Q: What sequence folds into this?
């Protein structure tokens, strides 16, 4: 094999059945992929022509495309600066490189789907980045605003809520 194909490719299959062929070295940012490859006892230099398919039943095609975009940038262009706690800023671009800040500048639905995909695929750096974006999204918000963001109902009656607010003051 030539130097460009030493590690081969694999196919990631979205919830809808869409297939994405990805270099194994890029896909290995996902611990789910690493574990699956280990369980399959795959020889990356095997020349039988077979390409491993890994089903991702919890990841939509649009989200998987974004995950692959992230992994490709991380491996081929520049790794993300590690996120340290406590956060030193409320601006994502002051915590990580601009490309990563722009990457999570998406609508709320996509952001939450990226969190879910990063968690399911076990991609720690992507999970850290998307959770950072969620934390910035809710920082400084009231309990009611946070419930609205996460689509959580209010379990308290109006009287209980007044009582809780009085006790917090």
A:
């Amino acid at each position: 094999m030539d130097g460009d194909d030493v590690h081969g490719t694999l196919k990631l299959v979205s919830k809808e059945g869409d297939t994405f062929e990805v270099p194994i070295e890029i896909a290995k940012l996902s611990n789910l992929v690493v574990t699956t490859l280990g369980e399959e006892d795959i020889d990356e230099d095997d020349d039988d022509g077979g390409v491993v398919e890994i089903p991702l039943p919890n990841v939509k095609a649009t989200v998987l495309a974004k995950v692959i975009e992230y992994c490709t940038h991380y491996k081929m262009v520049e790794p993300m600066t590690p996120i340290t706690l406590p956060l030193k800023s409320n601006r994502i671009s002051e915590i990580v490189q601009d490309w990563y800040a722009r990457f999570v500048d998406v609508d709320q639905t996509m952001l939450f789907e990226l969190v879910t995909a990063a968690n399911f695929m076990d991609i720690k750096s992507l999970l850290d980045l998307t959770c950072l974006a969620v934390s910035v999204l809710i920082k400084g918000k009231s309990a009611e605003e946070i419930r609205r963001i996460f689509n959580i109902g209010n379990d308290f009656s109006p009287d209980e809520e007044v009582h809780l607010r009085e006790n917090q003051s």
Remarks:
- Residues 1-6, 42-48 have pLDDT under 50 and may be disordered.
